[in-house]
């Protein structure tokens, strides 16, 4: 299943994006750290993390983010 479709399915069942991320990161210290950054309003830290992950995988963050956002346009 496409990850976007999975997110949509969970959200249609009433699971909030926050709850989804928390469920995914329960035992993952990296995800827990990201949740903490987000809760503290450290959007720059979250973005830097995402940019680094994309760079490690040979992908362009700006392109990927634009495509991700397009999945939610109606």
Would you give an account of this structure?
- By secondary structure, the protein is mainly α.
- It has one domain.
- The chain is 72% helix and 0% strand.
- It is globular and about 30 Å long.
In total, the number of domains comes to: 1
The helix/strand series, from N terminus to C terminus, equals: HHHHH
Overall body shape: globular
Strand content: under 5%
User: Helical amount among residues, as a percent range?
Assistant: over 70%
Q: What's the alpha carbon Rg, rounded to whole Å? A: 13 Å
- Quaternary: single chain
The average pLDDT score comes to 84
**For the report, how would you describe the main beta sheet?**
none
Structural class: mainly alpha
Distance between the termini: 20 Å
Which spans of ≥5 residues are poorly predicted at pLDDT below 50?
none
Number of helices: 5
Number of strands: 0
């Amino acid at each position: 299943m496409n990850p976007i479709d999975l997110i949509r399915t969970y959200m249609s069942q009433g699971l909030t994006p926050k709850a989804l991320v928390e469920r995914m990161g329960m035992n993952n210290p990296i995800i827990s750290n990201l949740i903490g950054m987000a809760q503290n309003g450290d959007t720059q830290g979250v973005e830097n993390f995402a940019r680094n992950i994309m760079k490690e995988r040979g992908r362009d963050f700006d392109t990927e983010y634009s495509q991700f956002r397009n999945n939610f346009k109606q």
